[in-house]
UniProtKB/TrEMBL annotation:
<dbReference type="GO" id="GO:0005381">
    <property type="term" value="F:iron ion transmembrane transporter activity"/>
</dbReference>
<dbReference type="GO" id="GO:0005774">
    <property type="term" value="C:vacuolar membrane"/>
</dbReference>
<dbReference type="InterPro" id="IPR008217">
    <property type="entry name" value="Ccc1_fam"/>
</dbReference>
<feature type="transmembrane region" description="Helical">
    <location>
        <begin position="130"/>
        <end position="152"/>
    </location>
</feature>
<comment type="similarity">
    <text>Belongs to the CCC1 family.</text>
</comment>
<protein>
    <recommendedName>
        <fullName>Vacuolar iron transporter</fullName>
    </recommendedName>
</protein>
<feature type="transmembrane region" description="Helical">
    <location>
        <begin position="159"/>
        <end position="180"/>
    </location>
</feature>
<dbReference type="Pfam" id="PF01988">
    <property type="entry name" value="VIT1"/>
</dbReference>
<keyword id="KW-0410">Iron transport</keyword>
<keyword id="KW-0813">Transport</keyword>
<keyword id="KW-0926">Vacuole</keyword>
<dbReference type="GO" id="GO:0005384">
    <property type="term" value="F:manganese ion transmembrane transporter activity"/>
</dbReference>
<keyword id="KW-0406">Ion transport</keyword>
<feature type="transmembrane region" description="Helical">
    <location>
        <begin position="192"/>
        <end position="211"/>
    </location>
</feature>
<feature type="transmembrane region" description="Helical">
    <location>
        <begin position="75"/>
        <end position="95"/>
    </location>
</feature>
<keyword id="KW-0472">Membrane</keyword>
<keyword id="KW-0408">Iron</keyword>
Length: 213
């Protein structure tokens, strides 16, 4: 048992340091507990949705530009078609995502009300956030073929550049989607790439065929 003299002789700075170490330890443990709670699965789903949205923007805009390029050789018409595809596609994606997520929100909130657990309302999906994220992802993908064709006057070179930049982007998006979806990397990337080539080729060929009538 410590005597009053021993307690009085104790170094105040040591006592303070011990208190500080205890406080830091408690804070560190609290931080670790917060880190464990992070929902990495939900984050991966959002990232995968963003990659898929960007891939949609890339492929639909590139196919539209290739289709227009099959009948109109001037760069202005091709770029205007791409811009129209970007704006229209981004708006369509945003509205579709908003309606879909809002329906999910209503269903989950109704379930919470039945269970008397509406205090966790902030954990429900955000329709506005989903709509904006979807539109932005689509627009980012659509910018790839637009930037590839924007400054090239020569018709054949422009088409070749669009195909080249879209090919690279399809491989990147396909690889990211495979990693986030835990799918085979090479197989998934090739599937996305071949599908993209087919979409562009079919749009180009069919539009050129219709343009002859």
């Amino acid at each position: 048992m410590a005597t009053p003299q021993a307690c009085s002789d104790a170094n105040p700075s040591k006592i303070f340091n011990l208190d500080m170490e205890e406080g830091q330890k408690e804070v560190h443990e609290e931080v670790e507990e917060v880190q464990v709670v992070i929902d990495y699965a939900k984050r991966a789903q959002w990232l995968r949705a963003a990659v898929l949205g960007a891939n949609d923007g890339l492929l639909s805009t590139a196919s539209l530009m290739m289709g227009i390029g099959a009948v109109k050789k001037d760069v202005k018409t091709m770029i205007l078609a791409g811009i129209a595809g970007l704006v229209g596609g981004a708006c369509s994606m945003a509205i579709g995502e908003f309606v879909s997520v809002y329906s999910q929100y209503d269903i989950e909130f109704a379930q919470m009300k039945r269970e008397g657990n509406t205090t966790q309302k902030d954990k429900l999906p955000n329709p506005f956030q989903a709509a904006v994220a979807s539109a932005v992802a689509f627009a980012i993908g659509a910018m790839v073929p637009l930037l590839g064709a924007a400054f090239i006057e020569d018709y054949k070179v422009r088409l070749g550049v669009v195909v080249a930049v879209v090919t690279i982007a399809l491989m990147v998006f396909g690889g990211l989607g495979a990693v986030l979806g835990k799918a085979p990397l090479v197989k998934s990337s090739l599937r996305v790439l071949i599908g993209g080539w087919l979409a562009m080729a079919l749009t180009f060929g069919l539009t050129k065929l219709v343009g002859h009538f």
